[in-house]
Design a protein that fits this description.
With about 450 residues, the protein is α/β, with parallel strands linked by helices. The protein is built from 23 helices and eleven strands. The termini are far apart.
Length: about 450
């Protein structure tokens, strides 16, 4: 028998696993097992098991390092049972970045065991920009054959059982035409005061084109020239969060190279996760590549989430806003609240709209349960987390829910439908766009 075909001993497997996590030993040791993370972990609140919370997951990683357990299927399972809401890290009195360590645990699992076969195929498609674009365009064209629209905005249910999609789940239909195909690459402005590059992300380009159009209209109302690079691609956050670092690097490098070609003052996104990717994740991905890291840092410094950009950079003229007579509450996406730490700016925009009554819900920054692909693989748990969010929405009796994340919008819409509630869920920028249009009509 050749060396390549010899079975690997348990000791050798453990040694390999330990090597994958060796550089985390000091960080893991800083966790004093106080249990503060239990208070804020949405998964723990529903499951009540030690391995559901950050403390338990870090203990599993320490057990791998001590040689007590291998990186097994069970280890992989519990590393995946996390919505990446970052609440544990914010709550930790010792400053342990538990969310980052859990992602490292997932990375170790990918190196030791490989990606789940479904994720492997999905990520293979995602890395091929041309095929990914074609697949989602086809989903938009033929979606009505597979999904039935509900009598409310941006809501649909599957007409027949689909793998990985709970039959009860309300999702959003793919757009018949992607946002980027609806506009020229450069949208000119007369004597523009600023030039921005618009990173649309996947959900805005292929699903919530209404949000993308609102971004464009608001920027135009402020005399800003908009460049929407045609070759931009997914930011890679879903891949990065799943532990596939090398694939995430490919997407990050591609986007950096694309946006470097344009002479823009700022890069803006209308999604907290996409903004976090540009400002934080791209830099971290190239920590061992000084040249790429410097390029990522240069773009990170001029990247803003749209509400943050309008408040801090543009400083919009609020006298140009007309009335929007409705009562609105706000859900803070996790990557907005604890990732890029932008929560005041969306509220400032909402409160500046005449006629709009803003009401703050309880635990506005608590995770809605989406967690990107988490809700697909763990629908029952995500629904329970979501039900708490829906109860908080119901308590304030708002007409609408505003947020800054496409997947949050989709998941909260699902929760509202499941709980027989009629509120619409919109992006903050859509309400601001309505206010500009209301003034223009006068």
């Amino acid at each position: 028998m050749s060396d390549a075909n010899k079975p690997i001993s348990a000791q050798a497997i453990n040694a390999q696993d330990k090597e994958l996590l060796a550089d985390l030993q000091d960080a893991l040791a800083n966790c004093m097992k106080c249990g503060n993370c239990m208070e804020v972990c949405p998964i723990y609140k529903e499951l009540g098991t030690e391995t559901a919370v950050a403390r338990g997951k870090l203990a599993l990683m320490e057990a791998v390092l001590s040689g007590k357990i291998p990186i097994s299927q069970n280890f992989d399972k519990w590393m995946a049972k996390c919505v990446s809401c970052k609440a544990c890290s914010v709550k930790c009195p010792c400053g342990v970045p538990a969310d980052e360590l859990i992602v490292r645990g997932r990375q170790a699992a990918v190196k030791a065991r490989g990606l789940h076969p479904v994720k492997k195929q999905v990520f293979k498609l995602l890395k091929n920009r041309t095929m990914f674009d074609l697949a989602l365009r086809m989903a938009g064209l033929f979606g009505p054959l597979s999904f039935k629209k509900l009598p409310r905005p941006m809501a649909a249910v599957a007409r027949f059982p689909m793998p990985g999609l709970d039959k009860r789940r309300v999702t959003a239909p793919f757009a018949a035409s992607p946002l980027r195909s609806q506009h020229p690459e450069v949208i000119k402005a007369d004597k523009p005061k600023l030039k921005v590059g618009f990173f649309t992300g996947c959900t805005i380009n292929y699903i919530y084109t209404d949000v993308g159009q609102a971004v464009i209209d608001v920027l135009k109302a402020n005399n800003i020239e908009i460049t929407i690079p045609a070759l931009q691609h997914c930011c890679g956050t879903p891949i990065y969060m799943s532990g596939d670092v090398e694939s995430a690097k490919l997407l990050a490098k591609h986007n950096i190279e694309v946006f470097e070609q344009y002479d823009v003052d700022y890069i803006i996104a209308a999604c907290g996760s996409c903004t976090e990717a540009w400002r934080i994740e791209f830099v971290e991905l190239f920590h061992d590549d000084p040249s790429m890291k410097a390029r990522a840092e240069k773009l990170a410094k001029k990247t803003y989430e749209i509400s943050e950009f309008l408040v801090k950079v543009v400083k919009i003229d609020k006298s140009k806003l007309g009335p929007v007579n409705t009562t609105v509450t706000m859900h803070d996406p996790c990557h907005m609240a604890r990732g890029i730490k932008v929560t005041a700016e969306p509220r400032e925009l909402l409160k500046s709209i005449p006629g709009l009554t803003f009401v703050e819900m309880k635990e506005a920054d608590r995770c809605c349960g989406s967690g990107g692909s988490f809700s697909l693989a763990n629908y029952e748990i995500s629904r329970k987390i979501n039900d708490r969010k829906i109860a908080n929405i119901a308590a304030v009796k708002a007409d609408m829910v505003a947020t800054s994340c496409g997947t949050c919008r989709m998941h909260i819409t699902d929760g509202l439908v499941q709980n027989n509630m009629n509120q619409d869920v919109v992006h903050v920028i859509q309400l601001l766009d309505k206010a500009y249009k209301a003034k223009q009509k006068r």
